[in-house]
Design goal:
Layout lengths: L2 H16 L5 E3 L38 E3 L4 H27 L3 H23 L2 H4 L5 H17 L3 H14 L2 H6 L4 H4 L4 H17 L1
Antiparallel strand pairs: 1-2
Helix pairs in contact: 1-2, 1-3, 2-3, 2-5, 3-5, 5-6, 5-9, 6-9
């Protein structure tokens, strides 16, 4: 199965489950008009010596989705499906990396970046969701998984962006108290995940 077909299957699966649970619609953006979705950019301090460090641009020129009003249960469905989709992207990223398939890795990176910008960013920037104690921790996990996905794709600039946002948005005691499944990312808490990924990125930059 080609990398393109695998990507289509991942995205289709996400829509099939979550599209019914959380209202999604696209907003037309005129050329040159700014959108509210944050865009990661490289800073001078991000210039790492590691030549494998990539910066991914969206593979599709698609406007970010706007999430319509939904109750907590529907948002939980959306978030859980988004987490599963990020995990599928991570599995595919590791497979292509192990095969040393440079073209497929770059293609996957562009599509994964499009997915994060269009479907992860809206929910992690939803003030109602972030302020809801029932799902606040799950949104934080989405950001950590996004960072882990970029790491798997050697997109270290973008991985650091999400790690930095996590530390800025949440208190240290909150990050330390939220446990995560080791099968998901290999760490016990959000705080451990952030510190662990930062060290892994630093070792890549040095190496």
């Amino acid at each position: 199965m080609t990398i393109r077909k695998k990507i289509v299957m991942i995205i289709t699966s996400f829509f099939f489950v979550s599209g019914c649970g959380y209202g999604l619609y696209f907003v037309k953006v005129d050329p040159g008009e700014e959108v509210t979705t944050p865009i990661t950019t490289k800073g001078e301090s991000d210039e790492a010596a590691d030549r494998t460090n990539r910066y991914y641009y969206s593979g599709r020129s698609q406007s970010p989705v706007i999430l319509t009003h939904a109750d907590t249960d529907k948002k939980k469905v959306y978030i859980n499906r988004a987490k599963e989709t990020l995990m599928q992207f991570r599995v595919l990223a590791r497979d292509t990396r192990n095969l040393k398939d440079e073209f497929s890795t770059k293609e996957l990176g562009r599509e994964a970046n499009s997915y994060v910008k269009n479907y992860i960013e809206p929910i992690i920037n939803d003030p109602d969701a972030v302020g809801n104690m029932e799902i606040k921790a799950e949104i934080a996990k989405l950001q950590l998984l996004s960072a882990a996905l970029y790491y798997d794709l050697a997109g270290y600039y973008q991985a650091k962006y999400y790690l930095k946002r996590l530390k800025e948005q949440y208190e240290n005691d909150f990050l330390s108290s939220i446990t995560i499944d080791q099968m998901d990312i290999g760490f016990n808490t959000l705080a451990e995940g952030i510190d662990g990924l930062q060290k892994m990125i630093s070792s890549k930059a040095i190496g």
